Amino acid sequence: MTPVIKLSAGGGRGFWEIPVVFEDANVLVIDKPSGLLVSPDRYDKDRPNLMRMLLDGVAQSKPFAVERKLDYIANAHRIDFDTSGLLVLAKDKPTLVKLAEQFGNASPKKTYLALVSGTPTEDQFECDLKLRHDVRNPALMRWARDGKKSLTRFEVVDRFGGVSLIECRPVTGRTHQIRVHLKASGFPILADPLYGDGATLLLSQLKRRYRAKDDEEERSLTPRLALHAWKIELVHPVTGEPLKVEAPLPRDLEVALKLLRKHRPSSIAPSGGRRIPTAG
Question: Can you spell out the DSSP letters for 158-208?
């Protein structure tokens, strides 16, 4: 059974069970759920965020901290609020310094999975558009000649007719890099509130004889950004040995993928046949 860390923002602002996918004396790797900030919001300090709950838990000697004898916890990198998946944490300052050095020079190999709108004709492609913050809205990223060097490599895992499952490997680590590069390539991620084309996934789009229930609005199969931080490979900051970790596809994306495969148009043959680990 996968161990979990139970966190509460207090005041009725939310409760989370965070799966632990790897842990030793120095490193903790968790599977962050979609809809949870990693760090405090610069505009709204009261929004629940993972690091504040973890730090409060350590300070207040919550069960997860006592069990692990934690007196320190820090994140070595970040993933978006909307994105689910792997986040690497350090249990001591020397470990954080070594992890931060790796992430700072983009040496860890990160692999994401995305459900996107559209069907790439090529099995593999890449995008190297330079990125910078939008001067009118710093919360957004834009491609620009004076932006920072950025590169993402993509590989199509499967096609379903109008929707595709894509493996994303960011070589650099810019904010929203995968999301912007996929949009620029013509394949925005489903349910992306910032860079999407408004597309989501509905069962009525897949099932020919779908009938909606009376007076009930159809729910999206992708109610949140369809992007998951799936795998990460790095050098263990203490032992120097390779460390490879995977976070199974979360339940919501697992269900969407299962239905896409079940209702795939007969004219489209399955691609690859690679198994994507799921939580089930």
Answer: EE-SSEEEEEEEESS--TTHHHHHHHHTT-PBTT-TTT--S----HHHH-T
